[in-house]
Amino acid sequence: MEEELIGTFSNYFEPHLIDEIMEVGKLIEVPAGETLMDIGQYIRNIPLLLSGAIKVLREDEDGDELLLYYLEQGETCSVTMACCMGHTKSEIRAITETDARIVMVPVQKMEEWMAKYHGWRTYVFDSYQNRLNELLQTVDSIAFKNLDQRLVDYLKKKVEVTNDDKIRSTHQEIAYDLHTSRVVVSRLLKKLEKMKKLKLHRSYIHVVDL
Q: Do residues 120 and 145 lie in contact, with contact meaning Cβ atoms separated by under 8 Å?
């Protein structure tokens, strides 16, 4: 774990901070599709992502979901940090997009490290900034782009975070992420297939040229 922490976070974290993370952090390996955090839960640990990808979702009052952003190697969830600081329940759902290795750090350490380590403060502030930018991109996408373009952007990002041009999500799962209907997603995927942008298979979507 130490080598992974150094390789992933050494541009932010001081050696003494990495030593502390080694002491209090718990390394977990989580398969794809697992819920790491759910809406309404109190947050007891801060996740530091060593490898893999996590998707972060918001849910409306009807139970429909919307994909907000992905977390990738070296990142953490700033919404989690905000809940920790305010001692409030989670307002997001986090699900592993791929198999992931994560170091879970007790929330009690967050304020202590904010005062103690410049690297941790910089990491936290940068995380807030990055997530804010991604949330603004999501809002812009919903407000200013048609669903055709949103679907293309979604598929391209999916390929990027999984490093795989074969997307194994069902049409219904894609519809949930984009907050639309399966029928609409299926129709748009068929349209992209006719344009030779992708190929539809029974259990996966092969992205060819988006």
A: no
Please say whether the beta carbons of 37 and 80 come within 8 A.
yes
User: Chain centroid to CA 164: how far?
Assistant: 16
Q: Where are the beta strands (DSSP E) in the chain?
A: 26-30, 35-37, 45-51, 54-59, 65-71, 93-96, 100-106, 166-167, 198-200, 205-207
Longest dimension (CA), the chain: 57
Mean pLDDT of the residues in the chain: 92
Strand order in the sheet with 198-200: 166-167, 205-207, 198-200
Strand 93-96 to strand 54-59: parallel, antiparallel, or no bridges (unpaired)?
Answer: antiparallel
| Full-model pTM | 0.85
User: Distance between alpha carbon 209 and the CA centroid of its chain, in Å?
Assistant: 24
Q: Which residues pair with 30 in a beta bridge?
A: 100
Question: Three-state SS for 126?
Answer: helix
Q: How many CB atoms lie within 10 A of CB 125?
A: 12
The Cα angle at residue 120 between residues 131 and 72, in degrees rounded to 5: 40
Count of CB atoms situated within 10 Å of the CB of 160: 12
Q: Among candidates 126, 135, 37, which has minimal Cα distance to 83?
A: 37
Could you report the per-residue pLDDT of 93-120, keeping only the tens digit for each?
999 999 999 999 998 898 899 999 999 9
Which amino acid makes up residue 98? T
> Residues near 58 by Cβ (< 8 Å), separated by ≥ 6?
65, 66, 68, 91, 92, 93
